């Protein structure tokens, strides 16, 4: 995707062939800054503090973190240490574990001298694969959008939650990839962008990247979605996911479940865009089995913004001494999901639906 005419991915290998570079998403939309990661500790910190975020991007950053570890010390001890360090950085997104296990399985049998090159090569492959996967999610989602053609002279209105665009992946995005492809195909489409408290990823990130691509959009308060659906102003909802169970339960940013309930009550299709590494075939019941990350209360009690003078400041919004709870995700049960949009096609949110696209996983049933 492009930023002011310049194409970017969210993460890439620097010109020196060793340093990893990524867009610092904690500073958007007010500042566009590229960060350098030179050690596995840099990568872990970036994931933990959400300099990089979004399940597919977390996986890519973790893969590069393993490469940075091997560039420092390709020993068995460092391989084990890097895997454990990165795995503990974020507990909910399953792509993290997938990428780390992939790298460990590749590197463990190799002699130490071969690990650095192999790790960097595989990390780059994971990034390229993610970009292609998201492009194909966009193609399959575009087919669904075409079936929702607007009436003459009207536009299609989508509602999304959090950020599942190219900033959450390596390129294109998951939930936003179909919207970008619809816009590029000339379909009149407009996006209602949930602000997505407490970190405001919708207002800060989704609105920013939609604007850079020229997609019409309007930021709304998180609580406005149901009202818009009641008044016929939402044609479909589309969100991403950090972990999806084998039976189709979807774990996504806190507040997604409420949007799904409102969509069901108002007959609005509710789609989820996801790549295959986000499917956790080892679990069935998302409500009972997915660990929900509890993040620091300061994310809820403090908010940053730009003053009239252009200065970016953080301010407290809660009464002094008031405690705050900050669960980062919730689980939307499969029964509320109209369909899952994957790189292999569109399927019902069910075990049978997922196995129709990924029959090789039937052996794990």
TrEMBL record:
HAMAP family: Salvage_MtnA. One of its GO terms (biological process) is L-methionine salvage from methylthioadenosine. Keywords: Amino-acid biosynthesis, Isomerase, Methionine biosynthesis. Belongs to the EIF-2B alpha/beta/delta subunits family. MtnA subfamily. It comes from the Bacteria. Pathway: Amino-acid biosynthesis; L-methionine biosynthesis via salvage pathway; L-methionine from S-methyl-5-thio-alpha-D-ribose 1-phosphate: step 1/6. This is Methylthioribose-1-phosphate isomerase. Pfam families: IF-2B. Its EC number is 5.3.1.23.
């Amino acid at each position: 995707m492009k930023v002011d005419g310049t194409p970017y991915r969210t993460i890439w290998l620097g010109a020196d062939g060793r340093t990893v570079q990524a867009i610092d998403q904690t500073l958007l939309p007010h500042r566009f800054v590229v960060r350098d990661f030179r050690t596995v500790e840099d990568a872990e910190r970036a994931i933990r503090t959400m300099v990089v975020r979004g399940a597919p991007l977390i996986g890519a950053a973790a893969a590069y973190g393993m490469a940075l570890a091997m560039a420092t010390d390709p020993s068995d001890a460092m391989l084990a240490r890097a895997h454990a360090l990165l795995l503990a950085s974020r507990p909910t997104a399953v792509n993290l574990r997938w990428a780390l296990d992939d790298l460990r399985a590749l590197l463990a049998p190799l002699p130490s001298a071969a690990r650095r090159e192999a790790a960097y090569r595989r990390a780059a492959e994971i990034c390229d694969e993610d970009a292609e996967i998201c492009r194909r999610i966009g193609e399959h989602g575009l087919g669904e959008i075409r079936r929702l053609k607007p009436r003459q002279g009207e536009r299609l209105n989508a509602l999304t939650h959090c950020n599942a665009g190219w900033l959450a992946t390596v390129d294109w995005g998951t939930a936003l990839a179909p919207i970008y492809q619809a816009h590029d195909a000339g379909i009149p489409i407009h996006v209602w962008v949930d602000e997505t408290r407490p970190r405001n990823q919708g207002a800060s990130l989704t609105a920013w990247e939609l604007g850079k691509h020229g997609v019409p959009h309007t930021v709304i308060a998180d609580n406005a979605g149901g009202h818009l659906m009641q008044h016929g102003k939402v044609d479909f909802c589309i969100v991403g996911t950090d972990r999806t169970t084998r039976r189709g339960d979807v774990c996504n940013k806190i507040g997604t479940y409420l949007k799904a309930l409102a969509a069901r009550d108002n007959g609005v299709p509710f789609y989820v865009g996801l790549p295959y590494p986000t499917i956790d075939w080892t679990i069935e019941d998302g409500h009972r089995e997915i660990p929900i990350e509890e993040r620091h209360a300061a994310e809820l009690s403090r908010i940053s913004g730009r003053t009239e003078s252009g200065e970016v400041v953080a301010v407290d919004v809660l009464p002094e001494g008031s405690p705050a709870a900050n669960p980062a995700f919730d689980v939307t049960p499969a029964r509320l999901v109209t369909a899952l949009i994957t790189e292999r096609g569109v399927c019902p949110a069910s075990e049978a639906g997922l196995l129709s696209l990924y029959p090789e996983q039937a052996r794990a049933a």
